[in-house]
Design goal:
The protein has 194 residues and is of the alpha+beta class. The chain has one domain: Ribosomal protein L5 (50s Ribosomal Protein L5, Chain: A, 2-Layer Sandwich). Helix content is 34%, strand content 18%. Strands 2-3-1-5-4 form a 5-stranded antiparallel β-sheet. Helix 1 (7-23) packs across helix 4. It is globular.
């Protein structure tokens, strides 16, 4: 019986890795940037008061990611928001290895074209350490979520962690893998420096 390999891993190993080495002039193959993990995070403001909202968020994130989410709890007490230490404030999932590549492939080819008025993700989400963060306004863009069963529209944050050492390396990696990121505008950057 043959082992299943996601098509994005095969594509990375056969073509993307080699082209990245040439374009970024990297001599050592092991230093070529690659995906390490993808973290999906959904904040729940009403989780403490509304248990059904929390349950639904957990079910939706499990459908989207393919694995059970972890409940995140408050580390600080914030009196203005009526939050105590240990209150549930969100759910998150960390994807690695094959499940990460499967999610990323589905996200690029199926989910991102379903975003309303989509012109590509912002190029300002890089943090300089090999991470790219962006937000999604509605969880209903994922085909796994049944629109009729959704009681509340929620957004989520997606963090893509790579082994890239600079923003340029990560940008090249994500673009070559197919993530639609808008090009950085040089004129705007030069004007802001002046």
């Amino acid at each position: 019986m043959e082992k299943y390999t996601p098509r994005l891993i095969e594509n990375y190993n056969t073509t993307i890795k080699e082209s990245l080495q040439k374009s970024l002039s990297i001599k050592n193959t092991m230093r070529t940037p690659r995906l390490q993990k993808i973290v999906l995070n959904m904040g729940l403001g009403d989780a403490k008061d509304n248990k059904t909202s929390m349950k639904q968020a957990i079910e939706e994130l499990a459908l989207i990611s393919g694995q059970k989410p972890v409940l995140t709890k408050s580390k600080k007490a914030i009196s203005n928001f009526k939050i105590r230490i240990g209150d549930p404030v969100g759910v998150r999932v960390t994807l690695r290895k094959k499940s990460m590549y499967e999610f990323f492939d589905r996200f690029i080819s199926i989910t991102s074209p379903r975003i309303r008025d989509f012109r590509g993700f912002s190029s300002t989400g890089f943090d300089g350490n090999g991470n790219y963060n962006f937000g999604i306004d509605e969880q209903i863009i994922f085909p796994e979520v049944d629109y009729d069963k959704v009681h509340q529209i929620r957004g989520m944050n997606i963090s893509i962690v790579t082994s890239a050492q600079t923003d340029e390396e990560e940008y090249e990696l994500l673009i070559s893998m197919g993530l639609p990121i808008r090009k950085k505008r040089k004129k705007v950057e030069e004007a802001s420096k002046a």
